Amino acid sequence: MTAKPTASHYAEYYSLRGTVAALRLLPWETAGRIGARLGALGYRPLGIRKHVVERQIAGAFPEWPPKKVKRVAIDSYRHLGRTAIETALLDSLGKQGLLDLVETVDGWHHVEQVMAKGLGAILVTGHFGNWELAGAYVAARGIPLDVIAREMANPVFDSYLNGTREGIGMVVVKDTDAVKRTPRSLRAGRAVAFVADQGVMGLASTFVPFFGRPAKTPRGAAVFALRFNVPVLFVVAIRKPNGKYRIVVEPIETKSTGDREQDVDGIVARFTQVLEKWVRVVPEQYFWQHRRWRRQPPETPPELRDPTL
User: Fold this and answer.
1) In what order do the strands lie in the sheet with 121-125?
2) Which residues pair with 78 in a beta bridge?
3) Is 125 helix (H, G, I), strand (E, B) or coil?
4) Tens of pLDDT along 199-227?
């Protein structure tokens, strides 16, 4: 059930809308640079979840010296700030403007081959690069796309963000409606996208390795793929140094051995491995502000436990 908006929610919303309205008057790159500066304030002087970010990066890359950990940490705040601003402004670009943001595309033929069969597809990504832009790009290329989205704490902002997503061609499905809506979408030959790297309470999940540590990861994408015998594609939008984007599409193996539980966990482990591969390439573009290893099996050995503790 959607929470009833409070006065605080409306205050946050109108503050955001005012900021976005001002940024729309600026060139895209200028607005992005402002977002990066604002994001950096979260690291210093505000220190918002600073210890979480630094400890998780150090845990993922134990060979790195503290100086490099801190550099990547502050760059992750800059990236997050820029991504937030870009997401808020995506609908102002129009379809061609959005497509022009993408400089290179690897593996798009996988999308075309899958969708040509008319059986639908599961798309997975993580909180890496610009995940909102990744979905918007797929929709802009004419792929009928549903995105499974978790409801945000501020219902007014949640409604605004979902309206922005739908304005650029995506159909938003709340995660609470995913079980009911996803089968319909797949039967209609649509693609259904999941951001599948945050295991939370009440969400069917499994534990798979992420940088060698067991991380609770949602199973939904894999369950639907096996139940409806549709392919899984990993899709990511990576920001390049020049501010443009690289889209990468990789197929995820969905073999069926007859052991449904084991097969589901195998798919989750494989797309998590692909995510880790890309995080290792550009670690500053991962959402380290989320405690990725917060929930782990009780038998996890001390050296593999949540590094933020």
Assistant:
1) 102-106, 245-252, 232-239, 121-125, 191-195, 145-149, 171-174
2) none
3) strand
4) 766 568 999 999 999 999 999 999 999 99
Query: What angle is formed at CA 230 by the lines to CA 228 and CA 233, rounded to 5 degrees?
Result: 140
In angstroms, the CA 109 to CA 247 distance is 12
One-character DSSP codes across 15-37: HHHHHHHHHTTS-HHHHHHHHHH
Locate the domains of the chain by residue range: 7-304
Rounded Cα–Cα distance for residues 140 and 3 (Å)? 32
Contact by Cβ (8 Å): 212, 303: no
Cβ neighbours for 206, distance < 8 A, ≥ 6 positions apart: 216, 217, 219, 264, 265, 268
The letter for the amino acid at 240 is K
Longest dimension (CA), the chain: 56
Neighbours of 164 (CB within 10 A): 20
Using pLDDT thresholds of 50, 70 and 90, give the confidence band for residue 11.
confident
**Which of 115, 104, 173 has its CA nearest to residue 137?**
104
Return the structure tokens found at 219.
């199973």
Reference 125, options 272, 288, 287; nearest CA is 272
CB-CB contact of 269 with 253 (8 Å): no
- In the chain, the N- to C-terminal Cα span, in Å, equals 33
